[in-house]
Amino acid sequence: MSQGDYVAAAYAVVLVVVLAYVAIIAAKLTRLQRQVSDLVELARRRR
Amino acid sequence: MGLAVVLALLVVPEDADQGVSQRIFYIHVPIALTAYFCFGLGAWKALRLLWTREEHFDLESYVAVHQGTIFGALTLLTGSIWAKASWNVWWTWSSRQLVLFLVLFLFYCAYFMLRYSIEEGARRARSSAVYALFGVVLIPISFLAIRLAQDFVHPVVFNISGPQMSASMFATFCVSWAAVTLLAYVLYRVELLGKRVDADLRELRETLERPRPSVPRLDEQMPTGVGS
Questions:
Q1: Which of B60, B76, B185, B197 could pair covalently with B45 via S-S, beta carbons 3.0-4.6 A apart?
Q2: Interface predicted TM-score of the whole assembly (ipTM), two decimals
Q3: In chain A, how many H helices and how many E strands?
Q4: In Å, what is the CA distance from B150 to each residue of A8, B103, B154, B226?
Q5: Is residue A3 part of a domain?
């Protein structure tokens, strides 16, 4: 591997980890949104 | 962040000693400094929790330590790649700064083991806070290790006489540092918001699923004969 390849690898690692983190947060927000919908439904039934 | 990457990879001149591999510096050092800052923030929030007993500091401390661990892992990964490019080894035990950073990282990894081994509540919050506070001692030791020890494996870029680099290199470093700090701040706020909403929703669900106390109807409350 050339020195340039190592530089590219270092920046790629950072990008991949940040993207994975954002994907996890996005999945969590989707789950929260589903929970809010469930709770709205539950509140409607109790009215 | 995009500007920082363009400056670091395309604009800034190559280092005379290390060549192109020195460009890793513009991502590795800001990430390492951000990791230190996140661990420090986690300890500060932990101290506020112990001082004020306000529950919200527990979550803030946890999220800061979590961010610190992610940035710590990135520091080790990018540092390891830089070591391979410069020294032709992925890791060296002879550099005290590397070893101390690894110790700091593992210490905060154990924070999560401790946190999740205790049932949720005030005891868990206090234990986690005390642990996070102990870890903060390692931060200045890790940061100053290379200066305290006679260790010349890991380069020293910032010393008493200032940054040992050209003005354009230093400007690029500052832009990268600002970008990484901003990224960490945004991720911290988003994760904290997610955790708070999660906790609020759990509480709301428990409230809604609890059976409602039976309220006697109005006509049942009236004594017989009243109103007739």
A1: B60
A2: 0.84
A3: 1, 0
A4: 32, 19, 11, 95
A5: no
Q: How many domains does chain A have?
A: 1
The pLDDT tens digits of the residues spanning A8-36 come to 999 999 999 999 999 998 999 899 889 88
Best residue in B201, B202, B207 to probe A by mutation, most A CBs within 10 Å?
B201
Domain-embedded: residue A13: no
Q: What is the largest CA-CA distance in chain B?
A: 103
Residue A36 lies in a domain: yes
pTM value is 0.82
Q: Which of A13, A14, A47 to mutate to test the interface with B (most CBs of B within 10 A)?
A: A14
Query: Chain A contacts of B82, Cβ < 8 Å?
Result: 6, 10
Q: Does B199 touch chain A (CB under 8 A)?
A: no
- Cβ atoms of B113 and B64 closer than 8 Å: no
In this complex, is the C-beta atom of A11 within 8 Å of any C-beta atom belonging to chain B? yes
Strand partners of residue B159: B162
